[in-house]
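Ticket closed. Logging final result for Coiled-coil domain-containing protein 157.
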Amino acid sequence: MLRHEESLQAKQRALLQQLDCLDQECEELRASLGEAEDDKAKLAHQLKETQTEKQQVQGQLEAQQQLVENLQQEKLSFEQTTSELLRNISELDELLQELKERERLLVSFPDLHIPAETQFECTGNITDDMEKQLQANNIRISVLEEENSRLRTALAKMKEAAQQGVLKVSLTPATSQCKGGQLLNSNRQSAMQAESGALSTMAQPILVIKQEHPKPWPPAGRRLSPEWSGFLPERW
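Final structure:
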């Protein structure tokens, strides 16, 4: 009996020890469960924040993509506009050069280059006609001044080259054989022709009048009728 009781007591002690171990394990598991739940809650909160950030980033990305598309469209539009502007500028430059050459020819050779569109009829108003003639003369003077400026520049360069001994300019252009003398003689002749043509052009009205007009604008070299002589300059 004693041995039986001792064995039962030993078993009881062993069970109590196991029970204590299980209690400790249970407490540990409960603590771990609490920590796991806390971690789960944190992870859930982080996941929610991450999803919110993801949505924000996606919205920003879509907005940036839309902005990039708009900028690309604007770039294409600007490139097309720039191309058109460059083409227009090129055409305007060509037209400007043509008009400058035409203006120069009109001043140098007025009798040979009179386009039909510049032949105006007399308006019947002496003030308007004289203002138009004044504008035409101012254009001729401006072209002649530009030509004189170019001639002065060329002459200054030739004189500088002659002083340095690079170019020899003869005092007798008619018998000179050097290139500098020929160029100087050619420039002088061109200047004299331009000035002569401009003066002859300025002496003639730019307006062309039909013969059936009751009071035609008198061309250069003709005597003025008494009704016009009181209003026009003496050169007419």
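Confidence is low (pLDDT under 50) at residues 171-184, 194-236. No further action required.
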